[in-house]
Each structure stands twice: as C-alpha cells, then as structure tokens.
C-alpha cells in the first residue's frame, strides 16, 4: 500500500512527494517539510505514528485498521485546540464506501443481516476494519429504525462458527491466497435475499480515495472516521 500510494501521489497534479518512510525510519525527521502524511503502517504502531503527525502539525490520512474507542479517544485528545486534521478510513475504495452506505440504508428493511469479509492471508487483523465499520453502520441504522434483534436459534456450536459479534451483527472473516480485499453484506427476509458485494482486485482501487483525502484533510480539522464524510 505504501509503494502504491507513493506512485499515486507522484502522478497526481498539484501534489509533491517529500518523503518515503519504512520500518525503522525516523518518523519525526521524515515529517519535516510535509503538509500531509499518509499512514499505512500496522495496528501495533499506528497510534504512535499518528500522534507524531499531530505533534508535528502534519495532517494525517490513515488507512491502517485495528482502531478501537480508546485509541480514537487518544487522537481526539491530542487534536484538541489544533487545526490539524486526521482521517481514519477503514477503506479508501469508492465502491466499498458506497457498499457501506447502501448496506446501512437497506438493513432496516430485512429481518437478517450478516457480513462476510475476504482478504489475503497476510492481513494481520480480523475482522477487517471495513467489515467492522460496516457492521457498526448497520447496527446504528437498525437501532434508529427500531428493528427487532436478528433471529438466531443457535444453542450449541464450535467457537467462532457464528463469526464475531459486532453490536449484534455477525461478521465472518475469510483468509485465502489470491484474494486482495472483498466484502459481502447478506440481507435476508421471508422469501428473498439481497447481496451487496464489493471487490478490490488491485491496490490501485484505493488510490482515488487516498488522493481525494490528501487534498481534503487540511480543511477538516479534528478527527474524522470514514471516507464517506469527505465525499
């Protein structure tokens, strides 16, 4: 993702790539002269990297997943009184953002909803940030509509057989060689099923969203979670 992002920035009109940082590099030194940093690191170090950006007054566009409420709260706290903007985006593919929006709109109309995310086996977190973000949006939409709990009569089963429980929405993770990044939302009602699916076959699919975020983040101080707020 880092290499693909560097190429996209170099090809974009009006943007200049001033540094490439990899594992072991001095982040603070690399941020000098930058207006925006694009962070595609790993969950174990991403908070440290984002806080370094905030301390340096550099806007941050963050694609690393693995965030929780406590980590997001730490970023919000660091940004208090600052004009710096930070975007944490579970997915930069425009199609994936649309899938999440469509799923939230459709969810209250169906009795059952489940999410399946499919990724390459080198991905270090499960379920994906995209799937969790999707499930949160679905759960919020169903609460707002007064939807009944999703039916599930399971009484016995192997650990993990029903996937992760994200606010009452079941999320299943597949790790398979040959995949890149894929998500399905399955919505079921009496006698019918609606399937929403997005496939990223190449990392270039994320670049229009990344470049748009780089151009936009400077005008959005504070913390924003989700690319949909920039579209």
Automatic annotation (TrEMBL):
Task: Please list the reactions this protein catalyses.
Answer: (S)-2,3,4,5-tetrahydrodipicolinate + NAD(+) + H2O = (2S,4S)-4-hydroxy-2,3,4,5-tetrahydrodipicolinate + NADH + H(+); (S)-2,3,4,5-tetrahydrodipicolinate + NADP(+) + H2O = (2S,4S)-4-hydroxy-2,3,4,5-tetrahydrodipicolinate + NADPH + H(+)
Q: Which residues form a coiled coil?
A: none
Q: Name one GO molecular function term.
A: 4-hydroxy-tetrahydrodipicolinate reductase
Matching InterPro entries: DapB_C (IPR022663), DapB_N (IPR000846), DapB_N_CS (IPR022664), DHDPR_bac (IPR023940), NAD(P)-bd_dom_sf (IPR036291)
Name the SUPFAM superfamilies on file. Answer: Glyceraldehyde-3-phosphate dehydrogenase-like, C-terminal domain (SSF55347), NAD(P)-binding Rossmann-fold domains (SSF51735)
Taxonomy, superkingdom? Bacteria
**Chain ranges of the Dihydrodipicolinate reductase C-terminal domain:** 95-231
Q: Where is the Dihydrodipicolinate reductase N-terminal domain?
A: 1-92
EC assignment: the record states 1.17.1.8
Q: What class of enzyme is it?
A: oxidoreductase
**Pathway it belongs to?**
Amino-acid biosynthesis; L-lysine biosynthesis via DAP pathway; (S)-tetrahydrodipicolinate from L-aspartate: step 4/4
Q: What are the alphabetically sorted keywords of the record?
A: Amino-acid biosynthesis, Cytoplasm, Diaminopimelate biosynthesis, Lysine biosynthesis, NAD, NADP, Oxidoreductase
Q: Give the Pfam families listed for this entry.
A: DapB_C, DapB_N
Q: Does the keyword NADP apply?
A: yes
Which family would the database say this protein is a member of? Answer: Belongs to the DapB family.
NCBIfam families tied to this protein: dapB
Protein name as catalogued: 4-hydroxy-tetrahydrodipicolinate reductase
Source species, please? Spongisporangium articulatum
Recite the lineage of the species.
Bacteria, Bacillati, Actinomycetota, Actinomycetes, Kineosporiales
